Amino acid sequence: MIQRFYYDQVVFIILLSAFFSTILCWVSIKVAPKIKLMDIPESAKHKNHKVPIPLTGGVVLIILVAIMTLLTGIWENPHLFGILASAMIILIFGLLDDFFDLNPSKKLFGQILASIFLIYFGVQIKFFSSPEFFYHTETKLDFWLNIIFTIFWIIAITNAFNFIDSIDGLAIGLSILSIVFFLFISFTSGQLAILKLCSILLGTCIGLYFFNAYPARLFLGDSGAQTLGFILGSIAIIFDPDKGNQSSTWFVPILFFYVPLFDLVLVTVSRLRRRKNIYQASRDHTFHRLAQAGFPIQHAVLVMHGLCLIMSMIGYLCLNLSLFYANLIFVVILLFGVVSLIWLDSNYY
User: Fold this and answer.
1) How many domains does the chain have?
2) What are the pLDDT digits (tens) for 241-267?
3) Residue 123 and residue 325: Cα distance in Å, rounded?
């Protein structure tokens, strides 16, 4: 009976969020030209669109998430309040970038600042600890290592979703798939606050998808892609499945974010090898390489969405496997990623 109650709540929140998201997207498209929040095709060589497109995805995302968290009451959860408050910093720096094209160092500063705020609110990775008398304690070294690792993780996921937002519907589709699996886990583990936040995000992203899918009438922009990545990276820190071997769950979010992270590593390694600016937008992302290999545009997007679905399913299944088999699967997937990276990079140039 209780599960049925929460199931009904989840469905209602998703539908309500999707409905309001659709309305806000439509309104933002009308408002964007007036405030000059537009992506102009002539502003960079790598852009594919022919006409100016609104960059209002981030504004829609944060407004709707803020409203729905107030309506559902989950803002009272200190961790979720911290996530949303810190996400505002990402949104502000993202909007400044969408308006004025910030340099990479300023964007990185904003991401570090938001990560520090996040840690202040208690959202922090607890990966390092020292065994002492059969229980684990956190030394000063462990404390700082956990902080550094948290900042690194948040910056990586934030940039991964920003980097991969290179074609219509790609980043938002990957986000939807990741959110669905976080929703499943939070439902089965009884993490109700995260369950409601994932429901809000899912509904919001569904509404955004219809406007961002090919041909896009609205872009996420740096503000939207970074904010979405930041929130998802933060959820990955606080989610805590109560079934399965806890020692094998640390890499589950990595599998949920496998495609964006793969693209981030591919682009970063490729540009460093060729002594290019890693923040300089270019046609060297996974999508562009698949297109060059012969995949039509929408087929390339579907391939990447399909890979995300497969990796997320594997991550979800790993929660029920023994430590040995779960980690063995993760190692195999890492090797697959390395081989794929080498193949894509060597065949692109």
Assistant:
1) 1
2) 765 444 557 789 999 999 999 999 999
3) 29
